[in-house]
Automatic annotation (TrEMBL):
InterPro entries to which the protein is assigned, alphabetical: FAD-linked_oxidoreductase-like, PRODH_bac_arc, Proline_DH_dom, Proline_oxidase
Protein name, UniProt field: proline dehydrogenase
Pathway: Amino-acid degradation; L-proline degradation into L-glutamate; L-glutamate from L-proline: step 1/2
Naturally occurring in which organism (per UniProt): Planococcus liqunii
Transmembrane regions listed in the UniProt entry: none
Main EC class the enzyme belongs to: oxidoreductase
Catalytic activity: L-proline + a quinone = (S)-1-pyrroline-5-carboxylate + a quinol + H(+)
Co-factor(s): FAD
Domain Proline dehydrogenase: 43-287
Keywords of this entry: FAD, Flavoprotein, Nucleotide-binding, Oxidoreductase, Proline metabolism
Keyword DNA-binding: no
A Pfam family recorded for this sequence: Pro_dh
Keyword Flavoprotein attributed: yes
Superkingdom in the source lineage: Bacteria
């Protein structure tokens, strides 16, 4: 499995394929986990989720942006999505990757783009989550977040449990809204736990620390062992349900998503859409061999 994971992570970073895939439309089974390439099809999925008592965090897909022009284009798309959320009155916020809006071009330029996005979202009372990318972007991402938090409270980020430093990062972000995850990228042993056992143990440890801090927490996982442990912990420690939510990705464990919402837990589904689906989809294939079977089936049936 290690080799397969490495292979798909490597594919996710292939820029030629990332660029090519924008012209293909949703292929290789991606339509199961990506809610279309335009706002209208994405909104259809969001409304269906809302009808089941589930909110959405919308990702206007994009990454590996190395020019100002592309970054500005991505920012405009995000602003248009915010406007659509407001106009259509859906229960949704947005997730944004900083490399999409210029982190690899220039930090200050990226901060200005982000400021514009968070400012527009604040006018509509919409929260903006900054997704966490690979370790090489982590410090810049946290620096930009801390700048934004001086002016806004409708912005937060993601803490990856596979990183040794995450416990310290949690301490410095006690009041911010945070999403806790295991971590989706391939990082070296100098900075991150490598075994599933160690990552799971740290994930649960960080969740427990975090649920006793003041900020709102999104626990983002498809792992029923973790979800069961969280349910038990919040019950034993009388953590009010308004202080946290569960999150899963669009198209994954949809029955369990609905069950958790029906049980009265706040629930948000991560809804990616757009033409830039390739890198996102390859990381999902890296995470789970069953997803690879799904992709292979769709390749032979088309
Ligand atoms: P895994 O370790 O993948 O799975 C654990 C166990 O759960 C499996 O062995 C299996 O028994 C069960 N299981 C898992 N999936 C399924 C399934 N589909 N069907 C049936 N059983 C299943 N990562 C980042 O690095 N940065 C981010 O910003 C980020 N944002 C995310 C947002 C959301 C909403 C989610 C859900 C994930 C996000 N991730 C992010 C990805 C995350 O870091 C993990 O890579 C990903 O969620 C896989 O880990 P897992 O916790 O779901 O459990």
């Amino acid at each position: 499995m290690g080799l397969t994971r490495d292979f798909f992570i490597a594919l996710s970073k292939n820029q030629l394929l990332n660029t090519g895939a924008k012209k293909w439309g949703l292929k290789l089974g991606a339509s199961k986990v990506v809610a279309g390439t335009d706002i209208d099809s994405m909104m259809k999925s969001v409304k269906e989720l809302n009808a089941n008592g589930i909110g959405a965090t919308i990702d206007n897909l994009g990454e590996f942006v190395y020019s100002k022009e592309e970054a500005l284009h991505a920012k405009e798309n995000i602003l248009a999505t915010l406007e659509a959320i407001q106009q259509r009155g859906v229960t949704a916020h947005m997730s944004v990757k900083l490399t999409q809006i210029g982190l690899d071009v220039d930090d200050k330029f990226c901060l200005e783009n982000m400021r514009e996005i968070v400012e527009a979202a604040a006018r509509y009372a919409i929260f903006i989550n900054i997704d966490m990318e690979d370790y090489s972007h982590l410090q810049q991402t946290l620096d930009i977040l801390h700048e934004l938090l001086k002016e806004y409270d409708n912005v937060g980020t993601v803490i990856q449990s596979y990183l040794y430093r995450s416990e310290k990062d949690l301490e410095n972000l006690q009041n911010a809204r945070l999403r806790l995850v295991k971590g989706a990228y391939k990082e070296i042993a100098e900075v991150s736990y490598q075994s599933k056992q160690d990552i799971d143990a740290n994930f649960l440890k960080l969740i427990k620390i975090r649920l006793q801090q003041p900020g709102f927490t999104s626990i983002a996982t498809h792992d029923h062992h973790i979800i069961d442990a969280v349910k038990q912990f919040v019950k034993e420690n009388q953590i009010p349900r308004g202080r946290f939510e569960f999150q899963m990705l669009y198209g994954f464990r949809t029955d369990m998503q609905k069950e958790l919402a029906d049980e009265g837990f706040a629930f948000t589904t991560y809804v990616p859409f757009g033409q830039d689906w390739y890198g996102y989809y390859m990381r999902r294939l890296a995470e789970r061999p069953q997803n690879i079977n799904l992709a292979l089936k769709s390749m032979v049936s088309k």
